[in-house]
């Protein structure tokens, strides 16, 4: 029977894990935000110190929540756009177990103080190896399914998910090359400025191909499906994909402006970041025009509201990013809270909102039952909007203040304000950010409850692929 | 109330916006009338408050106040007014451009009126610029911003005569533009500061 129906139980399991990690990861974020206001709440425990919990927060939300959500939606959509069940379903279950185990043990290792010292790649070498094995399993299942497809064309969402798998594999392997010293400590094969360049080639493309490309895969499948409209311009989506893939990979050095790397590398990173605006906004226009043809569903459908709003924040984040990559802006914004605000307008406003919208669409279909409460989902929408707006505004205020104060010179040309004075002045903004995080987290908890109630007492329903005679539509 | 916006109607705009929206839906106001009797006066409030506040109290960023020469403060306030005016005009023109997609009224007068009304809570809230402590300004202007967004979502479908669903979509698209415009203003400002045009920045 397993070959007759889509393999949706593993999708349900990944979705449940994603929701769990979302709540836990955001809790860790709120806690570290609180530590910036009340530094003593680490109670002198190294495991609760800012350095470890901040790493825990980013690891849980990126790899626990983000990647689990991407795998869930990739597996759901690749089956339906290929009209076949998942290839090697046992491998998909292996991936589920391996990934979640890696996150649990990885989180414990971070709290115990293991840290490879590379941002967003802090997990030590045993985990790097485990992640590589799991990622290969992801690739085999995904590309195996595509290889067995009954449709002639490969739908655009699969191109984005495919790019995610291939590029993240490349980034992870190269950036993790290291010499192990002990079980919990290794040293990068790269040294000095080269290490920095490799790290930000990894770091920025993790943003590009995971947080942007992967989630665009989600957008391109779930938005037209949800809106019951084909993509406004399929041709534009293909052009934007190749422009996006070509351009993004060069943009990493903008993280290293005014550092000890060659000037031309910095300028190259800046120019490529500016060019990146074109494919990013092409996708936004495609999304907005697709949804504008389905406006009649908005009133009754809270999930679509999340997706519409996520497009607005996608537009903001993909504009703000290139702007911050301009060297004359970066000289002001670098090392300020503006950067943190930018990351969160993308991570909360784009990644989290589109995932929430997708889950509100996906879970009732997996359960074969209507959403437990549309009212709760609507409340979640407003909490999410308020939380992300408050967060971004607080960080804009903090970042601009820091920039002005740090660049202020006195009559002798000396720095006018000490680092400590400036940080002390940030306390009210940090308090506001803590409140913003709490509001956003409250929405996520509501969603977890809503989705759990939707699924309570049910099993994932069996859905059979359509017959091969069914015509393939771009919005399938 | 006839569809004639005047700065004297500010109370109605803030506290009985629905009546104003309904009136605008019935009759489109002339662009010049909205601009000269309402929008420009509103747009003058933030720079004037900021100018007075900065001259008296200096910029308070959490450490000792930063005082600027009188000429600099006046120049910055003038630039602030120009930026606000550009933001207002561009938002109204973009709203009209978007109206085609969302099957809304393409009356430029209505678009001007709507954007001016949306900006009204922020303009009134800018009274806090009289004491230019950044965090206190953030605390006051965030609720004002929420009020503005409420007016946008509430008023757009009525004033521009489109359905509530399309209205919500168009309002969200406008929010996207406004967010981008806001961050552009930040970017242009710091780039100018970095180029030495700003107050006491750089060497």
Number of helical elements of chain A: 15
The description of the largest β-sheet of chain B is: none
What is the domain total for the residues of chain B? 1
Low-confidence stretches of chain B: none
Measured as a percent range, the helix fraction of chain A is: over 70%
Instruction: Please state roughly what percent of the residues of chain B sit in beta strands, choosing from under 5%, 5-15%, 15-25%, 25-35%, 35-45% or over 45%.
Output: under 5%
Shape category of chain A = globular
Specify the overall morphology of chain B.
elongated
Estimated structural class of chain B? mainly alpha
**Order of helices and strands of chain A, N to C?**
HHHHHEEHHHHHHHHHH
Helix-strand category of chain A: mainly alpha
Q: List the quaternary state of the chains.
A: heterodimer
Amount of helix of chain B: over 70%
DSSP strand count of chain B: 0
Strand order of the largest sheet of chain A: 1-2
- Estimate the strand proportion of chain A: under 5%
Of all protein chain pairs, which has the greatest interface, and how many residues does each chain bring to it? A-B, 55 and 39 residues
Structure summary:
By secondary structure, chain A is an all-alpha fold. Chain A contains 15 helices and 2 strands. Chain A has helices at 9-37, 50-82, 89-111, 125-147, 156-175, 192-227, 234-248, 263-275, 277-292, 302-325, 327-333, 337-367, 374-406, 419-424, 427-455; strands at 178-182, 185-188.
């Amino acid at each position: 029977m397993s070959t007759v129906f889509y393999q949706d139980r593993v999708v349900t399991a990944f979705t449940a894990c994603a929701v769990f990690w979302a709540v836990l990861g955001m809790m860790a974020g709120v806690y570290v935000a609180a530590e910036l206001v009340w530094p003593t709440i680490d109670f002198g425990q190294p495991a609760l110190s800012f350095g470890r919990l901040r790493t825990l927060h980013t690891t849980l939300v990126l790899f626990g929540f983000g990647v689990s959500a991407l795998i869930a939606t990739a597996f759901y959509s690749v089956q339906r756009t290929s009209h076949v069940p998942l290839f090697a379903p046992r491998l998909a279950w292996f991936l589920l177990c391996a990934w979640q185990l890696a996150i649990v043990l990885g989180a414990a290792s971070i709290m115990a103080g293991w840290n490879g010292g590379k941002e967003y790649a802090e997990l030590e070498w045993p985990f790097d190896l485990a992640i590589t094995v799991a990622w290969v399993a992801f690739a085999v299942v995904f590309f195996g399914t595509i290889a067995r497809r009954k449709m002639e064309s490969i739908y655009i969402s699969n191109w984005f998910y495919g790019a995610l798998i291939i590029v993240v594999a490349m980034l992870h392997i190269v950036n993790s090359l290291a010499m192990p010293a002990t079980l919990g400590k290794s040293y990068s094969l790269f040294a000095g400025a080269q290490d920095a360049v490799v790290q930000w080639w990894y770091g920025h493309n993790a943003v590009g191909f995971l947080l942007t490309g992967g989630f665009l895969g989600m957008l391109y499948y779930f938005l037209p499906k949800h809106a019951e409209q084909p993509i406004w311009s399929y041709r534009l989506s293909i052009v934007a994909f190749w422009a996006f893939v070509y351009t993004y990979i060069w943009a990493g050095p903008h993280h290293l402006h005014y550092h000890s790397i060659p000037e031309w590398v910095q300028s190259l990173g800046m120019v490529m970041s500016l060019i990146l605006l074109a494919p990013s906004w092409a996708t936004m226009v495609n999304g907005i025009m697709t949804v504008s043809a389905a406006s009649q569903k908005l009133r009754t459908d809270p999930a679509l509201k999340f997706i519409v709003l996520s497009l607005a924040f996608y537009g903001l984040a993909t504009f703000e990013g290139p702007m911050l990559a301009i060297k004359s802006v970066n000289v002001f914004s670098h090392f300020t809270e503006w950067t943190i605000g930018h990351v969160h307008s993308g991570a909360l406003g784009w990644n989290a909102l589109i995932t929430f919208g997708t889950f509100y669409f996906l879970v009732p279909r997996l359960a074969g039952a209507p959403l437990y409460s549309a009212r709760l989902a609507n409340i979640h929408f407003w909490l999410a909007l308020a939380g992300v707006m408050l967060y971004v505004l607080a960080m804009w205020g903090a970042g601009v203040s820091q920039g002005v104060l740090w660049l202020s010179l006195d009559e002798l040309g000396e720095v006018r304000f000490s680092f400590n004075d400036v940080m002390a002045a940030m306390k009210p903004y940090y308090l506001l950010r803590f409140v913003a995080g709490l509001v956003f987290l409250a929405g996520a908890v509501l969603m977890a409850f809503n989705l759990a109630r939707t699924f309570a007492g049910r099993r994932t329903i069996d859905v059979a692929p359509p017959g091969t005679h069914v015509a393939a539509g771009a919005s399938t | 109330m006839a569809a004639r916006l005047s700065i004297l109607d500010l109370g109605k705009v803030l506290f009985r916006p629905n009546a104003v929206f309904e009136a605008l839906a019935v009759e489109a106001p002339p662009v010049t009338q909205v601009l000269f009797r309402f929008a420009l006066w509103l747009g003058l409030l933030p720079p004037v408050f900021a100018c007075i506040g900065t001259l008296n109290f200096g910029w308070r960023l959490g450490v000792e106040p930063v005082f600027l020469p009188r000429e600099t403060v006046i120049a910055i306030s003038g630039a602030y007014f120009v930026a606000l005016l550009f933001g207002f005009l561009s938002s109204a023109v973009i709203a009209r451009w978007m109206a085609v997609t969302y099957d809304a009224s393409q009356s430029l007068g209505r678009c001007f009126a709507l954007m001016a009304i949306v900006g009204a809570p922020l303009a009134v809230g800018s009274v806090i610029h009289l004491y230019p402590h950044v965090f206190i300004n953030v605390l006051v202007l965030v609720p004002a911003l929420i009020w503005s967004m409420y007016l946008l979502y509430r008023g757009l479908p009525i004033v521009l005569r489109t359905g509530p669903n399309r209205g919500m979509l168009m309002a969200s698209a406008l929010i996207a533009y406004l967010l981008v415009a806001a961050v552009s203003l930040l970017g242009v400002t710091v780039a100018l500061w970095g180029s030495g045009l700003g107050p006491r920045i750089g060497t």
